[in-house]
From TrEMBL:
GO biological process, alphabetically ordered: isopentenyl diphosphate biosynthetic process, methylerythritol 4-phosphate pathway
Record flagged with keyword 4Fe-4S: no
Keywords: Isoprene biosynthesis, Nucleotidyltransferase, Transferase
UniProt-listed Enzyme Commission number(s): 2.7.7.60
Function (record text): Catalyzes the formation of 4-diphosphocytidyl-2-C-methyl-D-erythritol from CTP and 2-C-methyl-D-erythritol 4-phosphate (MEP).
Pfam families, A to Z: IspD (PF01128)
Stated name of the protein: 2-C-methyl-D-erythritol 4-phosphate cytidylyltransferase
A GO term for molecular function: 2-C-methyl-D-erythritol 4-phosphate cytidylyltransferase activity
Organism: Rummeliibacillus stabekisii
NCBIfam families xrefs: ispD
Site (Positions MEP for the nucleophilic attack): 152, 208
Catalytic activity: 2-C-methyl-D-erythritol 4-phosphate + CTP + H(+) = 4-CDP-2-C-methyl-D-erythritol + diphosphate
Protein backbone atom coordinates (compact mmCIF):
# COMPACT_ATOMS: atom_id res chain seq x y z
CA UNK A 1 0.00 0.00 0.00
CA UNK A 2 1.33 3.39 -1.03
CA UNK A 3 -0.16 6.82 -1.52
CA UNK A 4 0.61 10.49 -2.05
CA UNK A 5 -1.10 13.19 0.00
CA UNK A 6 -2.20 16.71 -0.90
CA UNK A 7 -2.39 19.09 2.06
CA UNK A 8 -4.11 22.41 1.35
CA UNK A 9 -2.49 24.90 3.75
CA UNK A 10 -3.07 28.18 1.93
CA UNK A 11 -6.09 29.48 3.85
CA UNK A 12 -6.21 32.65 5.89
CA UNK A 13 -8.01 31.37 8.97
CA UNK A 14 -10.63 34.11 9.05
CA UNK A 15 -12.86 32.30 11.56
CA UNK A 16 -9.93 31.80 13.92
CA UNK A 17 -9.13 35.52 13.71
CA UNK A 18 -5.55 34.99 14.83
CA UNK A 19 -4.26 37.77 12.57
CA UNK A 20 -2.29 35.24 10.52
CA UNK A 21 -2.66 31.74 9.08
CA UNK A 22 -4.16 29.63 11.92
CA UNK A 23 -1.88 26.73 10.92
CA UNK A 24 1.02 28.57 12.56
CA UNK A 25 -0.75 28.58 15.95
CA UNK A 26 0.86 26.16 18.35
CA UNK A 27 -0.51 23.21 20.31
CA UNK A 28 2.00 21.94 22.86
CA UNK A 29 4.66 24.30 21.46
CA UNK A 30 4.39 22.93 17.95
CA UNK A 31 2.59 24.55 14.97
CA UNK A 32 -0.66 22.86 13.93
CA UNK A 33 0.80 22.50 10.42
CA UNK A 34 3.69 20.45 11.81
CA UNK A 35 1.39 18.19 13.87
CA UNK A 36 -0.41 17.31 10.62
CA UNK A 37 2.77 16.90 8.57
CA UNK A 38 4.33 14.60 11.19
CA UNK A 39 1.54 12.03 10.80
CA UNK A 40 2.36 11.60 7.10
CA UNK A 41 6.12 11.89 7.67
CA UNK A 42 5.87 8.96 10.08
CA UNK A 43 3.65 6.81 7.86
CA UNK A 44 5.83 4.51 5.75
CA UNK A 45 3.03 4.07 3.20
CA UNK A 46 3.16 7.81 2.39
CA UNK A 47 5.42 8.40 -0.64
CA UNK A 48 5.19 12.17 -0.83
CA UNK A 49 3.44 15.28 0.47
CA UNK A 50 2.19 18.07 -1.83
CA UNK A 51 1.65 21.21 0.19
CA UNK A 52 -0.35 24.17 -1.17
CA UNK A 53 0.88 27.37 0.47
CA UNK A 54 0.50 31.11 0.22
CA UNK A 55 3.44 32.59 -1.75
CA UNK A 56 4.40 34.97 1.07
CA UNK A 57 4.38 32.14 3.65
CA UNK A 58 6.53 29.73 1.66
CA UNK A 59 9.89 30.83 3.06
CA UNK A 60 8.66 30.59 6.67
CA UNK A 61 7.14 27.16 6.05
CA UNK A 62 10.44 26.03 4.54
CA UNK A 63 12.20 26.94 7.80
CA UNK A 64 9.59 24.96 9.77
CA UNK A 65 10.09 21.91 7.54
CA UNK A 66 13.81 22.03 8.23
CA UNK A 67 13.41 22.62 11.96
CA UNK A 68 11.07 19.65 12.40
CA UNK A 69 12.83 17.34 9.89
CA UNK A 70 9.90 17.02 7.51
CA UNK A 71 11.56 15.52 4.44
CA UNK A 72 8.65 14.14 2.41
CA UNK A 73 7.37 17.43 0.95
CA UNK A 74 7.80 17.09 -2.84
CA UNK A 75 6.43 20.46 -3.89
CA UNK A 76 4.85 23.61 -2.46
CA UNK A 77 2.68 25.10 -5.21
CA UNK A 78 0.93 28.41 -4.66
CA UNK A 79 -2.56 27.96 -3.24
CA UNK A 80 -5.55 29.60 -4.89
CA UNK A 81 -8.47 31.82 -3.95
CA UNK A 82 -10.58 28.87 -2.74
CA UNK A 83 -9.54 25.59 -1.13
CA UNK A 84 -10.50 23.68 -4.30
CA UNK A 85 -8.05 25.80 -6.33
CA UNK A 86 -5.29 25.02 -3.82
CA UNK A 87 -5.95 21.29 -4.25
CA UNK A 88 -5.94 21.63 -8.06
CA UNK A 89 -2.54 23.37 -7.90
CA UNK A 90 -1.16 20.24 -6.20
CA UNK A 91 -2.95 17.78 -8.50
CA UNK A 92 -1.27 19.50 -11.47
CA UNK A 93 2.18 18.79 -10.02
CA UNK A 94 1.72 15.08 -9.34
CA UNK A 95 3.01 13.05 -12.26
CA UNK A 96 2.54 9.40 -11.42
CA UNK A 97 0.08 9.15 -8.54
CA UNK A 98 -1.97 6.00 -8.00
CA UNK A 99 -3.86 6.61 -4.79
CA UNK A 100 -3.95 10.26 -3.78
CA UNK A 101 -5.37 11.60 -0.52
CA UNK A 102 -6.58 15.13 0.08
CA UNK A 103 -6.35 16.15 3.73
CA UNK A 104 -6.94 19.52 5.39
CA UNK A 105 -3.72 20.75 6.96
CA UNK A 106 -6.03 22.02 9.73
CA UNK A 107 -6.89 18.44 10.88
CA UNK A 108 -3.83 17.47 12.95
CA UNK A 109 -5.39 14.54 14.83
CA UNK A 110 -5.84 12.11 11.97
CA UNK A 111 -4.36 8.70 12.71
CA UNK A 112 -2.44 6.24 10.52
CA UNK A 113 -4.99 3.37 10.93
CA UNK A 114 -7.79 5.57 9.52
CA UNK A 115 -5.52 6.72 6.68
CA UNK A 116 -4.76 3.10 5.80
CA UNK A 117 -8.44 2.12 5.84
CA UNK A 118 -9.13 4.94 3.39
CA UNK A 119 -6.25 3.95 1.10
CA UNK A 120 -7.43 0.32 1.04
CA UNK A 121 -11.00 1.36 0.29
CA UNK A 122 -9.87 3.68 -2.53
CA UNK A 123 -7.71 0.89 -3.99
CA UNK A 124 -10.76 -1.37 -4.14
CA UNK A 125 -13.52 1.11 -4.95
CA UNK A 126 -11.96 4.26 -6.45
CA UNK A 127 -13.09 6.83 -3.88
CA UNK A 128 -13.45 6.77 -0.08
CA UNK A 129 -13.87 9.57 2.43
CA UNK A 130 -13.67 9.89 6.20
CA UNK A 131 -16.76 10.78 8.18
CA UNK A 132 -18.56 10.36 11.49
CA UNK A 133 -22.21 9.79 12.27
CA UNK A 134 -24.26 12.88 13.08
CA UNK A 135 -24.82 13.04 16.86
CA UNK A 136 -27.47 15.71 17.25
CA UNK A 137 -31.09 15.81 16.17
CA UNK A 138 -31.16 17.37 12.71
CA UNK A 139 -33.91 19.75 11.62
CA UNK A 140 -34.56 21.86 8.54
CA UNK A 141 -35.08 25.50 9.51
CA UNK A 142 -36.39 28.30 7.31
CA UNK A 143 -36.80 31.89 8.49
CA UNK A 144 -36.38 30.81 12.11
CA UNK A 145 -39.16 28.21 11.88
CA UNK A 146 -38.75 24.42 11.99
CA UNK A 147 -39.83 22.88 8.68
CA UNK A 148 -39.16 19.29 9.62
CA UNK A 149 -36.96 16.74 11.33
CA UNK A 150 -34.50 14.76 9.23
CA UNK A 151 -33.89 11.06 9.83
CA UNK A 152 -30.46 11.14 11.43
CA UNK A 153 -29.61 7.52 10.76
CA UNK A 154 -28.48 8.30 7.20
CA UNK A 155 -26.62 11.53 8.01
CA UNK A 156 -22.83 11.67 8.27
CA UNK A 157 -20.54 14.60 8.98
CA UNK A 158 -17.78 14.51 6.40
CA UNK A 159 -14.13 15.09 7.17
CA UNK A 160 -10.85 14.58 5.36
CA UNK A 161 -8.81 12.56 4.36
CA UNK A 162 -10.61 11.86 1.12
CA UNK A 163 -8.85 9.15 -0.90
CA UNK A 164 -9.07 8.65 -4.66
CA UNK A 165 -7.76 6.74 -7.57
CA UNK A 166 -5.63 9.52 -9.07
CA UNK A 167 -7.06 9.24 -12.60
CA UNK A 168 -10.56 9.65 -11.17
CA UNK A 169 -9.59 12.67 -9.04
CA UNK A 170 -7.93 14.38 -12.04
CA UNK A 171 -10.99 13.75 -14.20
CA UNK A 172 -13.28 15.17 -11.51
CA UNK A 173 -11.12 18.31 -11.10
CA UNK A 174 -10.97 18.82 -14.88
CA UNK A 175 -14.75 18.52 -15.23
CA UNK A 176 -15.29 20.97 -12.37
CA UNK A 177 -12.90 23.43 -14.04
CA UNK A 178 -14.70 23.11 -17.39
CA UNK A 179 -18.08 23.67 -15.70
CA UNK A 180 -16.77 26.42 -13.42
CA UNK A 181 -18.13 24.36 -10.51
CA UNK A 182 -16.97 24.98 -6.97
CA UNK A 183 -17.57 22.14 -4.52
CA UNK A 184 -17.20 22.03 -0.76
CA UNK A 185 -15.03 18.91 -0.96
CA UNK A 186 -13.35 16.72 -3.57
CA UNK A 187 -15.90 13.91 -3.15
CA UNK A 188 -18.58 16.26 -4.45
CA UNK A 189 -16.62 16.67 -7.69
CA UNK A 190 -16.35 12.89 -8.06
CA UNK A 191 -20.06 12.43 -7.27
CA UNK A 192 -20.85 14.81 -10.17
CA UNK A 193 -19.25 12.29 -12.54
CA UNK A 194 -21.79 9.71 -11.40
CA UNK A 195 -19.08 7.73 -9.61
CA UNK A 196 -19.77 6.09 -6.25
CA UNK A 197 -17.91 7.40 -3.23
CA UNK A 198 -17.69 5.26 -0.07
CA UNK A 199 -17.52 6.22 3.61
CA UNK A 200 -14.92 5.08 6.12
CA UNK A 201 -16.00 5.64 9.72
CA UNK A 202 -13.46 7.99 11.24
CA UNK A 203 -13.10 9.50 14.71
CA UNK A 204 -14.73 12.48 16.44
CA UNK A 205 -11.17 13.44 17.41
CA UNK A 206 -10.37 14.26 13.78
CA UNK A 207 -11.58 17.85 14.21
CA UNK A 208 -10.74 20.69 11.86
CA UNK A 209 -9.19 23.48 13.87
CA UNK A 210 -11.49 26.30 12.78
CA UNK A 211 -12.46 28.55 15.71
CA UNK A 212 -10.82 29.37 19.07
CA UNK A 213 -12.76 26.63 20.92
CA UNK A 214 -11.12 24.02 18.70
CA UNK A 215 -7.76 24.89 20.28
CA UNK A 216 -9.21 23.80 23.67
CA UNK A 217 -10.43 20.49 22.16
CA UNK A 218 -7.05 20.09 20.47
CA UNK A 219 -5.14 20.57 23.68
CA UNK A 220 -7.42 18.06 25.44
CA UNK A 221 -6.90 15.47 22.70
CA UNK A 222 -3.12 15.85 23.00
CA UNK A 223 -3.32 15.57 26.83
CA UNK A 224 -5.19 12.31 26.49
CA UNK A 225 -2.81 10.94 23.86
CA UNK A 226 0.56 12.02 25.20
CA UNK A 227 -0.16 13.08 28.76
N1 LIG B 1 -7.14 26.26 2.34
C1 LIG B 1 -6.32 26.41 1.22
N2 LIG B 1 -6.59 27.39 0.30
C2 LIG B 1 -7.65 28.21 0.45
C3 LIG B 1 -8.50 28.06 1.58
C4 LIG B 1 -8.22 27.07 2.52
O1 LIG B 1 -5.35 25.67 1.07
N3 LIG B 1 -7.87 29.15 -0.46
C5 LIG B 1 -6.83 25.21 3.35
C6 LIG B 1 -6.67 25.73 4.77
O2 LIG B 1 -5.32 26.18 4.98
C7 LIG B 1 -7.03 24.53 5.63
C8 LIG B 1 -8.00 23.75 4.74
O3 LIG B 1 -7.91 24.30 3.42
O4 LIG B 1 -5.92 23.71 5.91
C9 LIG B 1 -9.42 23.80 5.27
O5 LIG B 1 -9.90 25.14 5.20
P1 LIG B 1 -10.46 26.01 6.42
O6 LIG B 1 -10.52 25.19 7.65
O7 LIG B 1 -11.67 26.70 5.94
O8 LIG B 1 -9.26 27.05 6.66
P2 LIG B 1 -9.20 28.59 6.30
O9 LIG B 1 -9.81 28.80 4.94
O10 LIG B 1 -7.82 29.02 6.52
O11 LIG B 1 -10.13 29.23 7.44
P3 LIG B 1 -11.38 30.24 7.24
O12 LIG B 1 -12.35 29.56 6.30
O13 LIG B 1 -11.90 30.43 8.62
O14 LIG B 1 -10.81 31.50 6.64
MG1 LIG C 1 -11.92 28.34 4.59
Amino acid sequence: MQYDVILPAAGSGKRMAAGHNKLFLELRNKPILIHTLEVFQQDEACRGIWLAVKPDEKAYIQTLLEKYHITKVKAMPNGGEERQHSVVACVKQIEDGQIVLVHDAARPFITIPIIHELVEAAEKKGAAIAGVKAKDTMKVVENGKIKGTVDRSSLWMIQTPQAFDFTLLKKAEQQAETDNFLGTDEAMLVERLGQSVYIVESSYENVKITTKEDLIFGDAILSQRIG
